[in-house]
Design a protein that fits this description.
The complex is a heterodimer of chains A (108) and B (121).
Chain A (H helix, E strand, L loop, with lengths): L3 E4 L2 E4 L5 E7 L8 E6 L6 E5 L3 E2 L7 E6 L2 E6 L9 E6 L6 E2 L3 E5 L1
Parallel strand pairs in A: 2-11
Antiparallel strand pairs in A: 1-3, 3-8, 4-5, 4-9, 5-6, 7-8, 9-10, 9-11
Chain B lengths: L2 E5 L2 E3 L5 E8 L8 E7 L3 E8 L6 E3 L7 E6 L4 E6 L8 E8 L8 E4 L3 E5 L2
Classes of the chains: A mainly beta (108), B mainly beta (121).
């Protein structure tokens, strides 16, 4: 199965700053098959981005995704208070679908 | 509005059984693959099983194959997860999830609120 490694485990950022989250796969992931979720405490994951860079309806443009091959990035350009959460990447090019372990974005 | 509601979680002893239910509304249920995903502090998010629109295909993660059975009843807009021979490591919050697009299984834009399963003696 494809293993996704997210880094850092925790990112401390101030409101208004930029956050860059990494997701690295142990084998090539077709860029159409990489997605990102946001999860807040006590809530289910929320789909942010699919196809590496396509924002889901309602997701603000401060969220952007990029990458190819084995290296993918989620960037939050200017953090808002509501963006502090855990972010997960997921691939579905191979079965089983796998998720990264998450990056927690916390207030600095 | 898409709505997914899980039920059936609880405390069960190792080796025991439990049946989870997810009831859906707000979309054409019989057009969608449906999936169970679980989340535990130890293993994070883990895809568990999914089932094709008409129930003709079912897939499982290796760790539950032979112990869990996914099924669906399109007349009741529901999917089920029959879990048997439960182990401590099956303890998790179990989510029902729907993919973004009909006839497509890969990623999920709608999730239920989750139901907690605790396996402990």
């Amino acid at each position: 199965e494809i293993v996704l490694t997210q880094s850092p485990g925790t990112l401390s950022v101030s409101v208004g700053e930029r956050a860059t989250l990494s997701c690295r796969a142990n084998e090539t992931v077709n860029s159409g098959y990489l997605v990102w979720y946001q999860q807040k405490p006590g809530q289910a994951p929320r789909l942010l981005i699919y196809g590496t860079s396509i924002r889901t309806t309602g997701i603000p443009d401060r969220f952007s995704g990029s990458g190819s091959g084995t290296d993918f990035t989620l960037t939050i350009s200017r953090l808002e208070p509501e963006d502090f959460a855990v972010y997960y990447c997921q691939q579905y090019v191979n079965s089983p679908v796998t998720f990264g372990r998450g990056t927690k974005v916390e207030i600095k | 509005e898409v709505h997914l509601v899980e039920s059936g979680g609880g405390l069960v002893q190792p080796g025991g059984s439990l049946r989870l239910t997810c009831t859906a509304s707000g979309f054409t249920f019989y057009n969608y693959w449906m999936t169970w995903v679980r989340q535990s502090p130890g293993k994070g998010l883990e895809w568990v099983a999914n089932i094709k629109e008409d129930g003709s295909e079912k897939k499982y993660v290796d760790s539950v194959r032979g112990r869990f059975t996914i099924s669906r009843d399109n007349t009741k807009n529901s999917i089920y997860l029959q879990m048997s021979s439960l182990r401590d490591e099956d303890s998790a919050v179990y989510y029902c999830a729907r993919p973004l697009w009909a006839y497509y299984g890969g990623f999920f834009d709608s999730w239920g609120q989750g139901t907690r399963v605790t396996v402990s003696s």
